[in-house]
Every structure is written in C-alpha cells, then in structure tokens.
Amino acid sequence: MIDRQGLFVSGDLMLGVPVLSAMETVCTNVSRILSGKTLLHRLQSQPVDLLVVDLEANDLDLKAIGDVIRQHGRPMTVAYAPHVATARLAAAQEAGFAAVLTRGQAASQLPAILASLLGTAPSE
C-alpha cells in the first residue's frame, strides 16, 4: 500500500466506523478529529493525502477549508451530509471538494469512491 495519511472529521459515531474502515483501505494512517475547530491548523501543519468531512461536524468553515486545499494543492477531499442538507452539500461543492456525497452514498459506496479518487484499488 502507498504511504498515505488520511484525516476524518466527524462527531458521528454511527457512520464514523464504516467511514474510518473505508479510509483504512486506501491510507496507511487515519486520524480522526471530532470537529472543524482544529482542522485548519492540522491541514496547514501536517501533510494529509485524504480528507473526509462529515458536513454535520461542529465548527466547520468550508470556505476556509477550500482556501487551504487550493493553496496547498492537496489533499483529495470528500464531504458528505444527509440528502436533505442541500445547502451544506452545495457549500462543499463551492469549496472545491472533489466528491460531495449524500450520507447514503457515503455509507454504501465510499470504499469504491475513495479508490477511484486516489487511483488505486482498496487495500493495494
């Protein structure tokens, strides 16, 4: 497996476990942050190859996240939210996330989506 660092932002324990598992199929190390409060500092101070964001996490500033992503040229980004959270999903698209998914899509398709975005097979 290629050495990749993943970062997951979510306070949701239910969907959090499957998301972490999916990330671990394409990343050698995955860290979890419970809110967006420390995310910007982390993105600026430590390299991250994959960022997955639950758009319901506390203290998210999607515009600032998008600015940091554009400035540093990485990481690959995925965001998800309930299908009824259309404003949050649209804000993530505007911020430049590579993939913006509904919660249902994240729950059922995330391993394949991550592998496709990173150009690798899961557990490669």
Provide structural commentary.
The chain has helices spanning 13-24, 39-45, 62-72, 86-95, 103-118; strands spanning 5-9, 29-33, 50-54, 76-81, 99-102. It is α/β, with parallel strands linked by helices and 124 residues long. The protein has a single domain (5-118), classed as Response regulator (Rossmann fold, 3-Layer(aba) Sandwich), CATH 3.40.50.2300. A five-stranded parallel β-sheet has the order 2-1-3-4-5, sandwiched between helices. Helix 1 runs parallel beside helix 5. The longest helix is centred in the C-terminal third of the chain and has 16 residues, at 103-118.
Task: Report how far apart the termini are.
Answer: 5 Å
List low-pLDDT spans. Answer: none
How many H/I helical runs?
5
Determine the CATH topology.
Rossmann fold
CATH class: Alpha Beta
Give Rg in angstroms: 13 Å
Q: Helicity, in percent? A: 40-55%
Query: Could you give the count of β-strands?
Result: 5
In spatial order, strands of the major sheet run 2-1-3-4-5
Q: What is the total number of structural domains?
A: 1
Reading the helices and strands in chain order gives EHEHEHEHEH
Characterize the biggest β-sheet.
5 strands, parallel
Mean pLDDT value: 89
Strand content: 15-25%
What structural class is derived from the secondary structure elements? alpha/beta
The appropriate CATH architecture is: 3-Layer(aba) Sandwich
The outline comes out as globular
The CATH homologous superfamily corresponds to Response regulator
Write the layout of secondary structure elements.
Layout: E1 5-9, H1 13-24, E2 29-33, H2 39-45, E3 50-54, H3 62-72, E4 76-81, H4 86-95, E5 99-102, H5 103-118
Parallel strand pairs: 1-2, 1-3, 3-4, 4-5
Helix pairs in contact: 1-5, 2-3, 3-4
